[in-house]
Amino acid sequence: MTRAESRCGLNAAVSTGSGKYAVGSMFAGIGGICLAFRNAGAEMVWANEIDADACKTYRGHFGPKYLEEGDVRNVNAQSVPPLDILTAGFPCQAFSVAGYRKGFEDDRGILFFQIIRIIEAKSPRVVFIENVKNLVKHDGGRTFECVCKCLRDCGYIIDHRVFNTKEYGNIPQNRERVYIVAFKNEKDLKNFSWPEPIRLEKTVASITHPGVKAEDCFYYTEESQYHPMLDKDVRNKETVYQLRRTYVRENKNNVCPTLTANMGGGGHNVPLIRDDYGVRKLTPEECLRLQGFPGDFNFAPAVRSSGRYKQAGNSVSVPVVQRIAERILKALEGADTHADRKDSR
Ligand SMILES: C[S@@+](CC[C@H](N)C(=O)[O-])C[C@H]1O[C@@H](n2cnc3c(N)ncnc32)[C@H](O)[C@@H]1O
Known about the structure:
CATH superfamily of the largest domain: Vaccinia Virus protein VP39
CATH topology of the largest domain: Rossmann fold
Bound molecules: S-adenosylmethionine
Shape: elongated
Number of helices: 12
């Protein structure tokens, strides 16, 4: 019996997956990384998330069994089940160009050290981390070097790549993120390779369906002070626009700009499109699809519109993470199969 098989939670209302490798997720949000690893064939056995609304959406899809709701700083590491893989998309604001640029001085940045605490306690075979691209360059590279050093000090060998969702996920979103893999065993790393770029075939219109009317609340009406400008400048049904204070920005490459958590803060942070019925904001559900979540993944009914936008913007591009997760599992399988063969000689 594998570690994963020995876990409870297999009877969750919604399947947690039943793979050979057990995965835990810190800063789980609504479960973008979890979904990707589960789709790749791993089994989710533990997750932690502080935001009550995100937890509601998470449980709606993954069931109620293993998600630990609360501040990660209060997690008792001993109560975390054995893990083959630990994943963490830790809060990125402290490292983002758009954020405060304070890195580890910022309280949210310090949350990174919680990852180290769980690693030290559980010693997973692989650690997978996702963050904003700027993590690599932040503070002249010192922040990233600190992240890598902490992982090395725990005995891991590290590799990383910056991938753009539009190039690696077949999703029309411009989203550059750094993906870090850390392996405990050199042979696992040797078996691992990063995915190659793939052709972007999905269009924005294939997600927004310009011929289908959205709910009225998403449209700009003539009462809006921005209506004349938007009506004049938002013309192309194939592309996505952003409202700035005095002008409209067209994303000429026909992909959606990076979706961010501050879409939930109101104002003009939600990208715009024109459809057959007028100029409107992307809906929160469209934002989920633009992150690559499947059509049957939805927000918990209790979550309001602002919370939905925040959840979508905070999450990850599922297909990109899934492609990396598949490579990680293949690397582990390869190493295990090789070891089995040796053992049976
Ligand atoms: C960038 S999002 C992660 C998205 C997620 N990895 C996914 O796959 O969709 C960061 C998450 O960390 C959570 N978070 C922030 N501070 C936390 C804390 N102290 N304890 C636990 N979770 C926290 C936030 O609520 C947010 O959902």
